[in-house]
Amino acid sequence: MTHAEIAVLDCQLWEVDENLMRAELTPTQMGEHLVKRKELWEARELAGNLSRNPKVVGLGNLLPKQQSWGA
Q1: pLDDT score for 12
Q2: Structure pTM?
């Protein structure tokens, strides 16, 4: 996932959070927003884990090896 795609997820999370702060949401609407927030958060965390450590989901062999500057 690219940094731009992660930024889009962040913006969507912010929007959901803003909506959750509004007092006029019905309990059903609040539940729907919480489900959406969980989905976005999980997608964001997976994207972050992939960018930091691709082996978390078994993709480590697909990416080029990082070069060591000292060797």
Answers
A1: 93
A2: 0.63
d(CA 35, CA 32): 5
Quote the Cα angle for 60-64-69, to 5°: 110
Which letter, b or e, does each residue of 11-40 get, where b requires 16 or more Cβ atoms within 10 Å of its Cβ? ebbeebeebeeeeeeeeeeeeebeebbeeb
The pLDDT mean for the chain works out to: 77
Is the pLDDT assigned to residue 60 strictly greater than 70?
Answer: no
Q: 42 by DSSP, 3-state: which?
A: helix
| The two structure tokens encoding residue 17 | 């959070």
What does the alpha-carbon distance between residue 17 and residue 37 come to, in Å, rounded to a whole number? 8
* Dist. CA 37–CA 64, nearest whole Å: 33
The pLDDT, as a whole number, for residue 61 is 44
